[in-house]
Amino acid sequence: MSESGTPHFKSIKLYNNLKSEVDRLIDALLTPMNREPEEDINFPFDMYIENDEVVIEVEMPGLEKEQVHIEGIDKFLEISGEKDTVKRKYKCCIGLERTNGKYKKLIYIERSVNMQAAAAQLDDGVLTIRLPLVEEKRGKKNINIG
After folding, report:
1. Which of 51, 73, 121, 138 is 20 to 30 Å apart from 31, CA to CA?
2. Does residue 14 share a domain with residue 82?
């Protein structure tokens, strides 16, 4: 049986789909009404740990690095920008099936990372973001009341 057919991987895929939908709904609720809404452009991503870094790879075909804005906020990574192939390439458009418009993707990062040391690269339509892991300090400590 292939890896994608195992119950574990199906559960992860269902969880990620549900999480993406919840993130989209929360983002829609938090977007001010006077702002132009972002299009529902789906940029699928993978997130994994490699060499003490959280690595996020996002498929973003047809975009230049100038069209992508990345911002780290606490445990969230926001990727936004505008995809406009019509203005960029065509004087007169006869048919348009590719998605255009503003986009925003919000990714929750469950691990503690150093956003200040993050690095990103866009090659061949894949955005790769590397976030160094930081050690979470947990433990027991007595706290005196002053």
Report:
1. 121
2. no
Identify whether the C-beta of residue 79 lies closer than 8 Å to the C-beta of residue 43: yes
pLDDT above 90 covers a percentage of the chain that reads 33
Which residue type sits at 73? I
Nearest Cα neighbor of 69 from 28, 38, 25, 35 is: 38
Residue 12 vs residue 66, higher pLDDT: 66
| pTM for this model (two decimals) | 0.63
Q: For the chain, what is the mean pLDDT?
A: 79
Question: What is the C-alpha separation between 127 and 25, in angstroms, rounded?
Answer: 24
List the structure tokens of 41: 């452009």
What is the C-alpha to C-alpha distance for residues 83 and 100, in angstroms, rounded to an integer? 5
Please indicate, yes or no, if residue 10 is contained in any of the structural domains. yes
Question: Residues 1, 69: one domain?
Answer: no
Q: How many domains does the chain have?
A: 2
Domain carrying residue 4: 1-30
Complete edge-to-edge strand list for the sheet that includes strand 126-132: 45-50, 53-59, 126-132, 119-123
Quick one: 60 and 101 in the same domain? Answer: yes
